[in-house]
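To: structure subgroup
Subject: Chain for Friday's discussion

All,

I'm putting the inputs and outputs inline so they're searchable in the archive.
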Amino acid sequence: MSSDAREPIDREEHLARLVRSVCEPLDVTVTHFETALPDLVTVGWLQPMNQGWVILVNPSISLAAAEQTVLHEAGHLLLCHGESSEYQEALKLDAEARTDHHRGPWEVEADAMAVALAEFTDRLQTTVAEVLEESAKDASHFP
């Protein structure tokens, strides 16, 4: 268990510290999104903001799922998925089809990176096994 567990910090701050521990020197913040997205089941996503990035996390998911989500999104950043024209095309196709299936290979790669990052960091408030379990659930959505 990390030193964060001993400090009285809120969930968003914990998740932000976790991301910073694996993404420095990138400028990444974390926030919970406020409303559900119609017809979509999502735990979180990454979007550009100013000169950096923001990871939005569903506030109703478990802490293990939230840690896996921010590490997964950090994986996209560290693997430079946003710079891939193929990934951008897959995102566009998924948005049009309202599905996740076009970008499956990149999502599974980000799930694998999330587990590797969980093993690397000392900032988890859950366990690597719990993050691995959440990554397996996430990866099972992709063909």
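Points worth raising on Friday:
Strands lie at 28-32, 44-49, 52-57.
The two ends are 34 Å apart (CA to CA).

D.
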